[in-house]
Amino acid sequence: MRRKRMDVLPRMCAGLLFLSLLCATGLCQRSKIDNRCVLSRAKSCTECIRVDKDCSFCTDESFEEPRCNLRENLLRYGCREASIVYTRGEMQTQQNFSINTSLQRTQVSPQGMFMRLRAGEEMSFNMDVFQPLESPVDLYILMDFSYSMSDDLDNLKSMGQNLAEFLQALTSNYTIGFGKFVDKVSSPQTDMRPEKLREPWNNADSPFSFKNVIRLTSNINYFSQELRKERISGNLDAPEGGFDAILQTAVCKDKIGWRKDSTHLLVFSTESAFHYEADGTNVLAGILTRNDEHCHLDTDGTYVYDTKQDYPSVPTLVRLLGQHNIIPIFAVTNHSYSYYEKLHKYFPISEIGVLQEDSSNIVELLRTAFERIRTKMDIRADFVPKAMKTEFTSLMYEKTESGSFHITRGEVGKFNVRVKALEYVGGQHVCSLPERDRQGVIQVKPTSLSDSLKVTASVICDVCPCEQQQEFNSPMCSFHGDFVCGQCICHPGWRGDTCDCSPASSPNNEVCILPGDVEPCSGRGECLCGKCQCYSEDLTQRFDGAFCQYDVLQCPRTSGFLCNDRGRCSKGACVCESGWEGPGCECPMSNDTCIDSRGGICNNHGRCECGRCICDKASLYTSSTCEISYSLGFQAVCESIRDCVRCQAWGTGNMKGNCSTCHLQLQMVEELKKEEASEYCSFQDEEDDCTYHYTLEGDPNVLPNTTVHVQKKKECPPGNFLWLIPLLIFLILLLGLLLLLFWKFCACCKACLALLPCCAQGRTVGFKEDHYMLRHSLMSSDHLDTPMVRSGSLKGCDTVRWKINNNVHKQGFTSLAAANPKDLIPYGLSLRLTRLFTQNLVKPDTRECEQLHKEVEENLNEVFKHIPGCHKLQQTKFRLQPNSGKRQDHTIVDTVLTAPRSAKQEIIKVMEKHVSHEAFNDLKVSPGYYTVTSDQDAHGMVEFQEAVELVDVRVPLFIREDDDDEKQLQVEAIDVPTGIAEIGRRIVSITIIKEQASSLITFLQPAYSHSRFDKLAKILVLREIIDDGKSQVTYRTRDLTAENGRDYIFTEGDLVFQPGETRKEVQVPLLELTEIDTLLHNCQLKQFAVDLLHPKYGAKIGRYPQTTVTIADPEVVDGIPSMTGLGQISQPPKGCLSVPLNPKANALSSREISFSWFPPPGKPLGYKVKYWIQGDPESEAHLIDVKAPSVELSNLYPFCDYEMQVSAYNAMGEGAYSDIIHCRTLEDVPSEPGRLAFNVVSSTVTQLSWAEPAETNGEITAYEVSYGLVNEDNIPIGPMKKVLVEDPKKRMVLIENLRESQPYRYMVKARNGAGWGPEREATINLATQPKRPMSIPIIPDVPIIDAEGGEDYDSYLMYSADVLRSAAGSKHPSVSDDSEHLLNGRVDLSFPGSGSGTLTRTMNTSYHQLSSHMQQEHRVMGNSSLTRDYSTMLMGHDSRLRLGVPDTPTRLVFSALGPTSLKVSWQEPHCEKEVQGYSVHYQLLNGGEVHRLTIPNPSQNSVVVEDLLPNHSYIFKVKAQSEEGWGPEREGVITIESQVDPQSPLSPVPGSPFTLSTPSAPGPLVFTALSPDSLQLSWERPRKPNGSILGYMVTCEMLHGGGEPRNIYVEGDNPETTLTVPHLNENVPYKFKVQAKTTQGFGPEREGIITIESQDGGTFSQFAGQQYMREEVYNFPAEYTTNTSISHSSLDPHFTDSMLMTTQRIESASSTLTKQVTKEFVSRTMMSSGTLTKQMERQFYEA
Prior knowledge:
This protein is mainly beta. Helix 6 (160-170) packs antiparallel against helix 8 and helix 9 (242-251) packs parallel to helix 12.
């Protein structure tokens, strides 16, 4: 045996150093970054330094390179450092008092910073924040005083002492205050009858908006006394005016009593929803102005501006509470929790808690909320200039979802503040912004802290100093220019470096011709004034020299890099950087790479040239530094001289007696010195078993020159003691026999002793925990290993029987008797075998696994066949069970037995019997372990062996798709059949919380095939977004037949999908064939698997959790590359070619696919390629003929799945086709969104919605809404504001705080994976539009945008359509009984045209009860040409009802369940006698059949109505019956908005709450003129039908009005549909629209415009057969300009049916076309008698 001891470290270092040299000289390619400074071609110094924060300008007069460049480049090119103009940003600390933790108050350090930044520059600094453990607290309770909160007020009055104790536990320094709110004292929020204004309820105060009752005080007794004086109040509608109260509480700082250095907590207590900006009738009519955000409390603390201004918006509250350090705590009941849960998420720090019906838990709620708040801190930046952006991070603390930090009080928190100056804002450079937008004082303030950090920041937009010292008409510029910053700025008409050239002067080209050349400037430039101006390419100078004779790309290259990337090419030669030399700058000037292991240069046996050693004597054993190294190519030196050494030194070995042939120079030494030799050889002499050692010196190439030092003394083993071995063996066997006997004796004794009472005391078994909480999204298995522990004496064995029940949270979960006992169900069986586990048992294709699989199933089937109805076993698998005692390395078998439900007990008995016998026929099993799992419960046994303290019970979790959102399982230890232990903790509960998946992640397909030539296997992973956000999944490869390190490289990692991302790629490196595989022609199919594991952030694994990758091995057949390893290829008919090998398809773009393959054996003449859209019949495939083994398929649809095949052919015919290959084209940008629609809420608020693009060309991931002011000429005024809507399903926004009476331009564009598509735009002035009246807030889930808020508030809040519903089940309704009819009165709306210039509003209100009250109101607004008349009839209580007849049912509420179904609910009416039932009548509001529903159950107060028409208004009537008869009816009108209206296919309502799975748009429209009055229209079926196509709706209308639109329905589902349209007019443009229909409704429309022209009255024959195609909507020629304006919008769906009115002008040089779409207004009057009148007027709006 040989041992080598080689000192390789120096040589390794030298090798690494050389490798670094190669990288430095360009052999290791590095990425290049485009130089923005040079590319800008800046002409002046100021323009240059504003291009980028790293740009500098050279003012050197003689500098010839581009003057605007990076500083290091300017120095490299010869510019003097003193001539470089470079502006640096600066940052200074103005005030910094360190934090004193002994002061018990909040502190911030530093307190003042100053910074100046260049555009694009970013600076950061650290900020310390300290919050003491105990800080002052101000607690202000703001309570809803509507009548439904009366019991809450009573409880609060008795809690004064409890609140005091709660505050004292928080801090010793506290104050507490109290305020109350109801709503605006105006109609319809409040009953304005005089008696109701005095006392809305018995023993109630007059209605009010907000009152500050108790100013913040530390006197808890005073607080309690004042609180007991308060009485409840009341109002009408369910939502309350709490937003007014919150705003006044924030801005009235002194009147409320907020202290400077305290934590401000605002407790908002209510059980109702909230009013918000622009949601009331008064606001919509223009009566109230916007909230001014000022304090308006009088001396009594009453809010006095409630009837003068509107409610605040949500963004306004978020901003004001943050500025005043107020943290809201929402204490709300279950009924309104969903509204406030969404609301509180928009506050950086806030809390929400569920309040009991009587507020009895408010103290506990506050305690929980405050504990959460104490650990949160939000840092915000106020007053940030538009040109800057701030960001806050921390390495100490984590960020929450809302952006706040989890902190620890009492310690100094470390934060990092980053301030960045933007380069562009709204498309313009920051230096062109007003000064107020470029500089300011940023206030950085942690929430709840009064201290703040002031950052004085500005963007550097200075002018270069040299530009302020310019020399006008300078002689250096020939008096024809100004000398500025080292260069001439020529006057108009002059040019050249010194402005001495005028283009008007006669050209002299002779001086520009190179001797021997004929063209001026070598044909590479222009001769101007006797000097060559060389041409440039791609903004860079390509040629140089006096005659442009040099090409800057023709200098020497090293490793492909021009001048080794260590210099520049100038005048045909490389100008190297410092430290480099050589023609191509390839040689470093230092000797660092020539240093040997001893620190010398080339081992003193050579010279260093160009960074390399040139050795004097080179050999196989000479290293790169001229050192002798035996490891270089000569590893057998020791072995080659071994026999000679033995022969010459000791006379032994194979050459014994023949040493004359050896020519070694031997030298015997006492001891070898390692450092003196390069080689240390050791061998064992076979003759005496001794080891000898020797070393070599010199070059082994010349053996006579090699000296061998041999160590004299061998290392021999000690003397022979072989006679001791038999004795030792005998003694060991004897000892083993004695130990065995002793163990048997002890085991027997212990078993007997264990039965004694004294030995059994204190020994228990039981579960370790009593409850487990699992989240479904985080579970990686369908079972849970639940620990069971044993305490006390661990001697002896114990077995424990257990069982588990599923769904114990449901009542009667054990009642399975109702199930059919004959039903077949799968039983999961688990046993522990006596054999040890091996890894082969988890590989089904191994022989060991197959044999055991067969043995298990044969024996178990033989046992269970005696149970009636049992089937054979299936799904048998093997595994290990950890934590199972001393047998945890034994094999566990899991299998499935299908048997009747009634056989469960028999199966359990059979299992117990055979486990106790330790055998199932010939199958040996271990005792004490089994599991039997049915569909709802499981039984089993575990065993504690000797000295075992803990074992795991493998509990099945019964995961089902139909599981409840929260379900419970119960595991119970039943008894101990073997052993003496008692059961301790008997029961453990398991709760599983099921969360909806936010996304599904899957492989694109279950199998891939890659050639080794690819070097990388690229595997696509897709994510289907359900609820957008971050998702993560782990991927990992594993061997199948391919081996890691031999066929591929093991790969593992995490894929993180950011919001909006839908696609990732896993890359696995593939290895080349090994020499052995190549020589042996290894044809085994090589495959490996890639698995998706451990989804996080709510993600779940989708359809393909794993994919199999087949590696195709290349080989050569008849000189042609072929592929093996893909299985046996069927032999073609004799003479014909076989199937082309390894076909692969890759998408090149959105319209191209590359399809390639390997040729089959033989000599093909060509190939036939078929391809078609996936899902289409193969008969419609396109067929192309190609000669090469690849083809590019073009003119395809974007983001479309295609299938393709290829076959080869020769002179004998065509061979077989390959397998079908699937490929999807890449995404392309989407087309513009569909039509824009506006619901005008008020003159400052509008609801904008839009339809999905007709061609999505991918998965739509977001929309961008831009809006901004325009002037009368439709030219933008100021920057456009942009809002990103990241949920593509929500195609609707509500924009608030627009400027009144100002026109705005709105633009919407869509985004998919390919980017942003074109914009759809419209211009509208809200002040000229009819408003959308709403008496109660019914707004679907739409984003709300504050037009005046900063970028921090360009977020949105979701509102529920149920916000009108009051607290169901409340003890007191939120409205008074006498006013219920006010909510259900009808409004008569008419909009006749008026010639006057005023808008008149007249309201007549009358009450028919105790007294009459008339209200008339006249209001003049603006210069609108519309007149409005509002007439409201309000029905009062009928006092003439006889006793016992029910009153009118109260609170009629509608809940939409779908586009055609509705739930109608009502509250039980007041009745002196028992109500016996209800009757519900409904019909279309414009007339039709009356439907009647009878409800005999008086406890049922709701009904579901199906088969309604979408977008149609229905009137519902509900009345109650008692034994005295029927009571009066309650009436209500409702419309369900749907995305597609079947009755009006041209007018879908975009962005509505219901999105149907409708088909995509049909293919492009193709027109063929047949005659002067008819044409043929054809189109292709939609690419995404989303179901079976039932037919198409075709609409034809004149483009610029006139005549009625024609609707034609075409049935059938053909690949291409053709329709002949007659009765058209010549020279009239028509617009055609085509929509596809499925069972889910109509999809988006495809539009096209066509005109049948006749030229000069000629015949039509010249046009016959001519086709016109329009692929996009309004895709006019380039000379046309399009201007779209929206004149009106859809009205409230609960009151009107309407169509969008759009005017579009298409202007050209010859004519003007105007398109009109009419808008219908339907107004209705609901009279007391129930009669219905309908008025309809069609209005036309000209462009």
